[in-house]
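Quick question, first post here. What does this chain look like in 3D?
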Amino acid sequence: MLTIYPERWPGRMGRLALDVTALLWTAVWALSGYAIYRLVLSLQVLADAITSTGQTFDRWIQAFRNASPANIPGLSGALHSLADSLQRSAGAPLIARGMEAHARINELATLLGLFVALLPIVSVTGTYLFWRWRDARDVDAAAQFVQGARLTGQVAEASALLAHRAVAQLPLRQLMRVSGDPLGDLAAGRYDALAAAMLRQAGMRPLPVSSGQAVEQRR
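> Answer (accepted):
Ran it through. Tokens below.
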């Protein structure tokens, strides 16, 4: 199982705070995208009004057809032709344009909602998740290294390795706060302070004091 949080509380709380912040950031932008979607979608009322107007025209034209006199040579045909012309120029186009506008507004609302939500989520949350995944792998590797040293009793060897990595990797200011003479400590086998600093960098607790360091401290 992957270890995603360090042993030490400062590192654990710091990463937990970052995780909560990333979660809130994602939730805020997801809700913002949904709000934009709903706002643009409300414009469908205008499209539906156009469709309703076209349907109203169709009802009026149908009523006009029903009220037109039948079986009157010339007049009946002219009135039906007029009704058909009105339907083609007023009712049917309005209904078609209203339905098309309804569909386009839905597409626009979806695109704007996704754009508003996904742009900050992918750019910020995605970057954070990538960093968090790499950090969790580093934490897990440090935890396995420390656990292996404790189980096998190779604390002195592990401290020596960590001390050399501390001298090679830690910033000089941090290194000099740990030891006034880091090279001298390496040469004399005083590894524990440097090893502890390297483990603190990874969020882990220091290893038990090795026997060599204990003898050095008693001297």
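Residues 37 and 112 are 7 Å apart (CA to CA).
The radius of gyration is 38 Å.
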